């Protein structure tokens, strides 16, 4: 018997928006004309780029802080121009990078329980671009390695731990870079550019490994991302302004493995990829739907699954890493859809009758530990992500943060006057009892300092409030 319907455990994935009281309300989402997602999410926080007078700012909200967000809620507001892109560090859930029209990249340390005061001092300011910085992307497996791309057509790869630009790719692109994507182990990047080329680049050798001219012939922006098997998935427009998606093999870019035309809407399609399930979710800016496709080895390779539709158009979209999902509800993706004045989580689930852990839906996924140090990667080493099981759910625990602290400069904030390049990453030391004790002592001292700072801030706040009360009483 010939099988009529392709078998797939994801044919019945369905999306559902959460109830109103679980949305984040009264947020003035940024109106800047830039095709980034405006939202970044991890298992602790959701960050959203917002409208800000006199500079650029973004909100960082603990995931549980739903409901109406007060206008006076503290923001991250150190940039002097609008923020264009933000990205959470995959190896430390309290560290976020931002790129801005002010030509700088800033790396921020968010307090464990969220902001109580607005944050104006970043841990590190990375200066090297001569025009606005529209793209920031952390390395998937090496600690403290951050990529930024600007409208000066330059890609810079930084060692955040020392504040240095270690690689500067300034002669590869002749036109604006629309997006940059790392491959699974961070040895290659792929880029989509305004000159209609898709390039696969080895950043450490600073050379193009593969490129395709006119990957999509239309003039509107393209996107290119790496898949887990090394293929490249692109979205763009045809000459007739129809939206297209395509799959390419970097070893032979002459013809696409698959090319599909979708519709004639003019919003840029932002692809979000889940390497564990091989599903790609396409969210068009200005669309009110999310389409999802499964990538397999059988023709036609890109299989349409379904569409989640709603009434309101999306201004941007955040995508939760796998470790932040609820495995008990068979949740395989969670999006944070930005409206004009709110952020609405959308949950994608695969219905299952059993309450047991569904190991076919949740293979081991990339965990929060870095596989390499920055120096090892710059010296030429590669490593796949360190995987964790989600069988008992993922708990962002204290222990993990302590491990990060020992090696991570981002947890020891420099004084405002110090130059970033004075910061250096502590060297690995033998794992002896004395080292552990020192680390423990450091931790306790830091915690005491943090509590003292909080008390100091609260004292100031109390005295201000008392002054206000005195004025009102008078």
TrEMBL record:
Q: Does the keyword DNA-binding apply?
A: no
Q: Name one GO molecular function term.
A: actin filament binding
Q: Name one GO biological process term.
A: actin filament organization
Q: Which Gene3D superfamilies match?
A: YVTN repeat-like/Quinoprotein amine dehydrogenase
Entry annotated with the keyword Repeat: yes
Reading the lineage from the top rank, the first entry is Eukaryota
Q: Which residues does the UniProt record annotate as the domain DUF1899?
A: 3-67
Query: Whereabouts are the WD repeats?
Result: 76-118, 126-168, 170-211
Any one Pfam family match given in the protein's UniProt record, by short name: WD40_4
The UniProt keyword set, sorted, is: Coiled coil, Repeat, WD repeat
The similarity annotation says: Belongs to the WD repeat coronin family.
> What PANTHER family does its record include?
CORONIN (PTHR10856), CORONIN-1C (PTHR10856:SF10)
Question: Which protein, by its recorded name, is this?
Answer: Coronin
Source species = Tursiops truncatus (Atlantic bottle-nosed dolphin)
């Amino acid at each position: 018997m010939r099988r009529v319907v392709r078998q797939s455990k994801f044919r019945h994935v369905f999306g559902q928006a959460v109830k109103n009281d679980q949305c984040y309300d009264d947020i003035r989402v940024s109106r800047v004309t830039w095709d980034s997602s405006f939202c970044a999410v991890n298992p602790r926080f959701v960050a959203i780029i917002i409208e800000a007078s006199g500079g650029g700012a973004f909100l960082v909200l603990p995931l549980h802080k739903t409901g109406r967000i007060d206008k006076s809620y503290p923001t991250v507001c150190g940039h002097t121009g609008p923020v264009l892109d933000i990205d959470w560090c995959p190896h430390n859930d309290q560290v976020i990078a931002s790129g801005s029209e002010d030509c700088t990249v800033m790396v921020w340390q968010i307090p464990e329980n969220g902001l109580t005061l607005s944050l104006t001092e970043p841990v590190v300011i990375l200066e090297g671009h001569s025009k606005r910085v529209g793209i920031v992307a952390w390395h998937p497996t090496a600690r403290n390695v951050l990529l930024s791309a600007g409208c000066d057509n330059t890609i810079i790869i930084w060692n955040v731990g020392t504040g240095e630009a270690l690689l500067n790719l300034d002669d590869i692109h002749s036109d604006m870079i629309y997006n940059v994507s790392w491959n699974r182990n961070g040895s290659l990047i792929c880029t989509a550019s305004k000159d209609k080329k898709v390039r696969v680049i080895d950043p450490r050798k600073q050379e193009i490994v593969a490129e395709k001219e006119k990957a999509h012939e239309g003039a509107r922006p393209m996107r290119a991302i790496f898949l887990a098997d090394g293929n490249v998935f692109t979205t763009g427009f045809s000459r007739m302004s129809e939206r297209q998606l395509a799959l390419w093999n970097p070893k032979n870019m002459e013809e696409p493995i698959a090319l599909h035309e979708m519709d004639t809407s003019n919003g840029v399609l932002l692809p979000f990829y889940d390497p564990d399930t091989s599903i790609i979710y396409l969210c068009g800016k200005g669309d009110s739907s999310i389409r999802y496709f499964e990538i397999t080895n059988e023709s036609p390779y890109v299989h349409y699954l379904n569409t989640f539709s709603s009434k309101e158009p999306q201004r941007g979209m955040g995508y939760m890493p796998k470790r932040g999902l609820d495995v008990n509800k068979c949740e395989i993706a969670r999006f944070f859809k930005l409206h004009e004045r709110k952020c609405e989580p959308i949950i994608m689930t695969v219905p299952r009758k059993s309450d047991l852990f569904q190991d076919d839906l949740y293979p081991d996924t990339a965990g929060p530990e870095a596989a390499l140090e920055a120096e090892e990667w710059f010296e030429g080493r590669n490593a796949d992500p360190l995987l964790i099981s989600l069988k008992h759910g993922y708990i962002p625990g204290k222990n993990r943060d302590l491990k990060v602290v020992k090696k991570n400069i981002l947890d020891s904030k420099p004084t405002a006057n110090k130059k970033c390049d004075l910061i250096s990453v502590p060297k690995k030391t033998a794992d002896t009892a004395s080292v552990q004790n020192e680390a423990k002592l450091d931790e306790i001292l830091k915690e005491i300092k943090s509590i003292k700072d909080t008390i100091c801030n609260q004292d100031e706040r109390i005295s201000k409030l008392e002054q206000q009360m005195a004025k009102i009483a008078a």
